[in-house]
Design brief:
With 272 residues, the chain is α/β, with parallel strands linked by helices. It has helices at residues 17-28, 40-52, 67-81, 104-132, 153-175, 206-216, 221-233, 243-255, 259-269, and strands at residues 8-12, 32-37, 57-61, 86-89, 95-96, 135-140, 180-187, 199-200, 238-241. The chain has one domain (8-269): NAD(P)-binding Rossmann-like Domain (Rossmann fold, 3-Layer(aba) Sandwich), CATH 3.40.50. The longest helix has 29 residues, at 104-132. The mean pLDDT is 96. 1,4-dihydronicotinamide adenine dinucleotide binds at residues 12-13, 15-19, 37-39, 42, 62-65, 90-93, 113, 117, 140, 142, 187, 189-190, 192-194, 197, 217.
């Protein structure tokens, strides 16, 4: 028996990276897993990997930015498994560009997926999580939800917003009679496809950016999934994923707003 045995867990953005690793690890630990993503090929591979653990798996194409679709999906998962215990709002995209280089549409797309996707998933599943009597909302922010970096204003805005939304929800659940735990996750650099799939302003060399990211990302998605699930088991408010995340968190506490100048210089030198 594990903490997750027999529980129903939903993972968005499960076709790749952290989402796939979470889905497989949840399957290994005895959960029934609902996976969704816009990438149906990647999703089919995740479905195969989760099924190979012996877990019950439901797989669906879902764009988390499409609110109506998310609401219908939440009902379908509840109907299929009879209940929902955990939702991992993980789907996300990245974009690199200075504020004066980005179009409004670029910023809106990041907010639609990275912020509204999390809000849609949280609100759609919250009634079922409350009803389960043993619910858990796990929202994936980023270390970029703890500190800002040049060229990341849209992503920073979305990830800071996820953090505020999630921390407030946690406080509300603590004050209520609902047995729903809430965890905000802040990964550091994880070796996934995020930078390769990312958008960038025209003046930026996307391949070069992805190359720089690959050199800096230290933690495997499998290790990230284990760290996240340990935090979930312990009902943690905040989970930092990777030594880099722990170190960044310490530096910003010590330096206060002084980190901005420091990180701007270091980030620029690292080619980010
Ligand atoms: P990834 O690119 O490997 O996986 C993200 C998945 O989300 C992909 O399968 C993609 O198809 C899916 N997705 C994108 N837009 C979607 C939409 N509208 N609806 C449904 N699915 C959608 O990236 P990774 O790294 O696994 O990212 C997972 C989460 O972790 C994201 O929220 C990301 O912002 C966050 N994160 C990642 C870090 C990293 O270093 N890789 C660091 C900090 C946070």
């Amino acid at each position: 028996m594990t903490h997750f045995t027999g529980k129903v867990a939903v993972v968005t953005g499960a076709a790749s990276g952290i989402g796939r690793a979470l889905a497989v690890e949840l399957g290994r630990r005895g959960a029934k897993v609902a996976i969704c993503d816009v990438d149906t090929d990647g999703l089919a591979e995740t479905q195969r990997l989760v099924a190979a653990t012996g877990a019950d798996v439901k797989s669906d194409r879902l764009d988390v930015a499409e609110r109506e679709q998310v609401l219908v999906y939440a009902d379908a998962v509840k109907e299929h498994f009879g209940r929902v215990n955990l939702v991992f709002n993980n789907a996300g995209i990245a974009f690199t560009g200075n504020v004066d280089e980005m179009g409004f549409k670029d910023i809106e797309r990041i907010m639609d997926v990275d912020f509204w996707g999390v809000v849609n998933g949280t609100k759609a599943f919250l009634p079922a999580l409350i009803e389960s009597g043993d619910g858990h909302v796990v929202n994936i922010s980023s270390v970029f939800g703890l500190f800002a970096m040049p060229t990341q204003s849209a992503y920073n805005a979305a990830k800071f917003a996820v953090r505020g939304f999630t921390e407030s929800l946690r406080q509300e659940m603590l004050l209520s009679d609902h047995r729903v735990k809430v965890t905000c996750v802040h990964p550091g650099g994880i070796k996934t496809n995020i930078a390769r799939n990312a958008g960038a302003a025209e003046s930026r060399d996307q391949k070069e950016l992805a190359h720089s990211f690959d050199k800096l990302a230290r933690t495997s998605p499998e290790k990230a999934a284990k760290i996240i699930l340990r935090g979930v088991e312990r009902g943690k408010a905040r989970v930092l994923v990777g030594m880099d995340a722990v170190m960044f968190d310490k530096i910003i506490r010590i330096t206060g707003p002084g980190y901005q100048r420091l990180f701007a210089r270091v980030g620029h030198r690292s080619g980010l």
